[in-house]
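Obj.: predict assembly geometry.
Materials: sequence records (below).
Method: joint structure prediction, all chains together.
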Amino acid sequence: MILLSITENIHNWLFSIMPEGVASIVEMVLIAVVYLTIFAVAGLFLVLLERRVAAWFQLRIGPNRVGFQGLLQTMADAIKLLTKELTGTERADKFLYNLAPYFVIISALMALAVIPFTKEFHAFDINIGIFFLIAISSIGVIGILLGGWSSNNKFALIGAMRSGVQTISYELSVGLSLLTMVVITGTLQLSEIIEFQKNGWLIVQGHIPAIIAFMVFMISGTAETNRAPFDMVEAESELGAGFHTEYSGMKFAYFFLAEFINMFIIAAIATTMFFGGWLSPFGITESIPWLGVFWFLAKTMGLVFLMMWFRWTFPRLRVDQLLTLEWKYLLPINLVNMVVMALIVWLNLTIRF
Amino acid sequence: METEVVHTNFKSEEYFINMGPQHPATHGVLRLLLTIDGEIIKKVEPDLGYIHRSIEKMCERDSYQQIVHLTDRMDYLSANINNEAVCLAVENALQLEIPERVKVIRTIIGELTRISSHCLWWGVMGMDVGALTTYFYGFRDREMINDIMEETCGARLTMNYNVPGGLMLDIHPNFVKRVKDFIVHFKTKLPEYDRLLTGNVIFQKRTVGVGILSKEDAISFGASGPVGRASGYSCDVRKHHPYSAIDKVTFNEVLKTEGDTYARYLVRIQEMWESLSIVEQLIDNIPEGEHRVTTNAVIKLPKGEYFQKVETARGELGVYIISTGTKSPYRLKFRSPGFSNLSLLNHIAVGGKIGDLVATMATLDLVIPDIDR
Amino acid sequence: MSYFSDIYKGIKTLLTGMSVTGKYFLTSRKGAITQQYPDNRDTLKMFDRFRGEVIMPHDENNEHRCTGCQKCEIACPNGTIEIIWDRGIDEVTGKKKKKIDQFVYHLSMCTMCGLCIDVCPTDAIEWGQNFENSVYDRSALTRVLNKPGSKLMPGVED
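Observations (raw structure tokens):
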């Protein structure tokens, strides 16, 4: 309620003191600033979380020096990266080389705009939300391809080519597994999808096909974010650092942050599509709407943790096995799954409370 | 004017890529010149010499006691076994009678060294195929052995514990208890290795049928150690030419016939079990006695040629000494296992992907200072 | 059908692997194997035989046990030890006798092989436990082990 009243008050105040056009522009700028802050804080926090979680998996302690329990560690790292020299290779295609990090980070930022944190805290609620997310998330790979191509390094080039192959393949599975869920909801708008789940989260409503779709989505989502076990793009024991071998300083940090934001986005989509977004389990806190943010973030963090668990347990796939997994396993399963889901919806076999 | 039409579309082109000398997967300063067609490897040319310290030449300058400490720095992961090789060669040349206690302790320490080397290899193997967590689990168990070594020998990596004539110091009073603790600990952790990595479907896909080495090739390339045994070549020096107290224990020579990366992996895992059983058989039966027989302060080997081979964690290490009767050898040659094992890399990695090359190289278990010496 | 059994087996092995790491994650509080090094300096104790650096113990009368026989200098493979010696007159017997002026130890060259300590007939040098050997200037690694004004402990040579 507090959050709602604040945003509404600001909205009313802005429109009362300025002409309508100016006010809406100012409002958009304000929202953009808020989202940029969320972006930076979430990115830095996720990096720290990753490092701590990795340490706990690996019998270590993790960063615990800067700030209380190392909470400011990533801030310090970011400041260090800001002050570092921006190096480059001699015959790099300078324009594309400098452009690449922005492609990656802007696509991640755009995807963040449509994430529904809670009913009121939802910047951009378009009626083709899912479609927009799928479309935007495939722009990021252009940045990776450009970065690998323009930095005039063979390792980077191999990494970039792998990334192209990988993203093009796994895009299909991400899209199809989400479409499977759209079959139930009948809408692409994220807020409506969540409202639809008041009668039970989609993973319960759709039961078996929904669980399969969820597993496919998590696997292909991990692959889309180029994280282990699908980190063919970076593959540090094979390619050194892959596509960002030649990047340093803040340009590298953009790639790095974008990876973590993408992870957050994938988890957030999964939360929205399968676990009821901001809805509390069994509606226990339905009377307090602003707790939706808490539920949304809690579910997202749970899924982010799952992705970290994957990363710190599994070996990396080889590039041809990566494609085998997609084209021979995930894609056929997904297509059959979608038909099954359609049948279930047609025969009204979904579970509803 | 006629213009020549050149069809350049879709022409596949091979290109060179430098893997190393600074590369995470080469475990040191090995440089591989790869000829690649896309992802497929056409040719692997190892380029050596980045960590050459002319140890063999230094041996011609040093006395026989001093040679021992140089061998620590060859294959540093099986430092104790290297020491033992030189000491055995010198002792055999002098025809010294070595006390039973020394032999048993040397064998125990050698097998512990083998386990610690394989622990590290397991961790690094996991890391090379992308499972970073294995590295820390491998190091946790290796750390226990390092503590045992530090308490008895004084150092963790380059121990220089053997001297011609026995051991530099007697074992520490805590040694037996610590080793027993380690055996109990490690028996619970080894099955975990299997659950985490061996059984993993991704790992199996990455390793089964990759980098196949036939028995004939293994023999002709001079492969030894787990690499040879995974191809069915029975080459365990401990079985065929027993030294120290190894003939007092029963153990199996682990043999596989597949010869692929997965077989090499399994051989090493099972070798850890075998080494554990060797240590278990000996640890309660360390005979009393001297830990060292006195030798002359200046050891002069009789004129002649001497050869001694031992089984290090990586394979067969040969020490070949030519003596002219002076205080240092006229020529000393080490036959290091890593060098011959590296030589077959081109043979087994061609045709695979870059990922295959990394996995194959991990199971060859290369230690670059051992190759370059 | 092997298509589906492959999927089933694959997922099962993946879950087995995750259970291993998951177990360590849950017990991570007490399971950390790393040490918080500069913080645990007070409690960190090396083993008795730990080879940190070569030291020459002196007793309360500022006397050491080194006779200057130079066996360690010969035994050292790297030229780490340099003994600068002199001939002095023994007060008791009045004979000319070898005594050390400076026992120079180049820590930067030492490989901690222990041959010098092994060979020393009078146990004049032994292993120190110090392992924090980083210095700002390389010359600080060259040390004179015998303290200024120290002399040979009586009775060592017998």
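Conclusions so far: The two ends of chain B are 63 Å apart (CA to CA).
To do: check interface contacts against the pulldown list.
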